[in-house]
Amino acid sequence: MADTAQLIIDGKTYEIPVITGSEGENALDISSLRAQTGYVTLDIGYKNTGATKSAITFLDGEKGILRYRGYPIEQLAEQSEFLEVAYLLIFGKLPSKEEYDEFKTAVTMHTLVHEDTRVIFDGFPTNSHPMGVLSSLVSSLTAFYPKSIDPGRTPDQINRTIVRLLAKIPTIAAWAYKGEMGHPLNYPRNDLDYCSNFLYMMFSLPTTKYEIDPVLVDAMNKLLILHADHEQNCSTSTVRIVGSSHTSLYTAIAAGINALWGPLHGGANQAVIEMLEAIREDGGDIQKYVKKAQDKNDPFRLMGFGHRVYKNFDPRAKIIKKAADDVLSKLGVDDPCLDIAKELEEIALKDPYFVDRNLYPNVDFYSGIIYRAMGIPTEMFTVMFALGRLPGWIAQWKEMRENQEPIGRPRQIYTGETERDYVPISKR
Ligand code: ACO
């Protein structure tokens, strides 16, 4: 592979450096293009723009490959624990037993949130969407840990912020749900592992003894791992770009939570279940919805279908589809939405519209069905996604800061009015 590519503008040839990644992907380094030529590149939606060099996650959308720090997602989802994957993503290697014990203990010891958080929490109306509550309360952590705002924070302070985020977000997330339900809030239990503690805080009520079901713990562990990182997606790019201004890690993560909320991103898991319910309530005519999705005059899209980078299959969707079957049969749940989902997938995968556009089910097509079987309400699905994505956001933020990346600041092509004189209001 050549070290440079040639770009010819107005008969003049410019040498553009070629960068090759460790998996052989090539890029044209255009960082000095404007200085050399006066041109910028235009790529709306960053469909073909590498925003950074990253050593965290590799994915090949054509081959359906996803690896965290080199480890295949299939092996991690089957054999590891979520906090172990969090350590791997954030610190770059699998922890030894001692490192893992120390990390788990640190996360466990920080699960309580400051009691004053309840005052903020009580200010939200009971029917607030839990994603709004989550992002607001994560931002509010800057008030309880003001040193996190200091751009000169030390590695020790940063590590403490990382541990606090991993420890406190499940508590805040469970509280957001309890608030929505009007239930009393549960405090974390440090005798429980990460997923068990979250399920306890979500579902335990003073009226009944809550038994932790290992099937739910296992399903949650798997789902969190599958969502833990996905290179430069919308919310991760948000975290990196917000963090690039040297704001607090808490506020960068809060920004990521807000970016994730939209139905074209993490909000899709909620939208999928709403769509499947709507199909069921409408008599289960799947063909009608497949046709609607193809009609350019109809804004309807098949939620949970299509992906910006996977143009073959989403490897996470494969694992999740199998997990959905397992979890539902183990829990003895019969969900008509799962049958509709399977039929919809089968019909769409044969339909030329979806085939020609390489539209396949993505990770969110089946995750909502598992969450529903676990008893997690629909508005909490995206919160579950945020819990899973948290280590990825942290790892990407840390990498960006350690590599001393400059502030993110894209260019534009201005298409507005050229200069004109102001007209006083009396003369308009
Ligand atoms: N249903 C129907 N048609 C679709 C769908 C869909 N779900 N997704 C894409 N298309 C069509 C588009 O209309 C377009 O058709 P055209 O070429 O005739 O104009 C073509 O496929 C390409 O679609 P784009 O929107 O250009 O693809 P892009 O990469 O920008 O969007 C996205 C990807 C946002 C995921 C899109 O597929 C979508 O909206 N899917 C539904 C929402 C969803 O499931 N989001 C979750 C993504 S996974 C995640 O974030 C965890």
Q: Report the sheet-strand fraction.
A: 5-15%
Helix content: 40-55%
| Overall form | globular
Catalogue the ligands. Answer: acetyl coenzyme *A
Radius of gyration: 23 Å
Count of strand segments: 6
Q: Can you count the helices? A: 18
Describe this structure in words.
The protein is mostly helical and 428 residues long. It has a domain at 4-50: Rubrerythrin, domain 2 (Single Sheet). Helices cover 52% and strands 7% of the residues. The protein has helices spanning 33-37, 73-79, 82-91, 97-109, 117-122, 130-144, 155-181, 194-203, 214-227, 234-243, 249-260, 268-281, 286-294, 315-331, 336-350, 352-356, 364-373, 381-402, and strands at residues 4-9, 12-20, 26-28, 57-60, 65-68, 71-72. It has a three-stranded antiparallel beta sheet with strand order 1-2-3. α2 (73-79) runs antiparallel to α9, α3 runs parallel beside α18 (381-402) and α9 (214-227) packs across α18. It binds acetyl coenzyme *A (ACO). Acetyl coenzyme *A (ACO) binds at residues 264-266, 268, 293, 301-308, 357, 359, 362-364. Acetyl coenzyme *A (ACO) is lined by residues 264-266, 268, 293, 301-308, 357, 359, 362-364.
Topology overview:
Elements: E1 4-9, E2 12-20, E3 26-28, H1 33-37, E4 57-60, E5 65-68, E6 71-72, H2 73-79, H3 82-91, H4 97-109, H5 117-122, H6 130-144, H7 155-181, H8 194-203, H9 214-227, H10 234-243, H11 249-260, H12 268-281, H13 286-294, H14 315-331, H15 336-350, H16 352-356, H17 364-373, H18 381-402
Antiparallel strand pairs: 1-2, 2-3, 4-5, 5-6
Helix pairs in contact: 2-9, 3-18, 4-7, 6-7, 6-11, 7-8, 7-18, 9-14, 9-18, 10-11, 10-18, 11-18, 12-15, 12-17, 14-17
Acetyl coenzyme *A binds at residues 264-266, 268, 293, 301-308, 357, 359, 362-364.
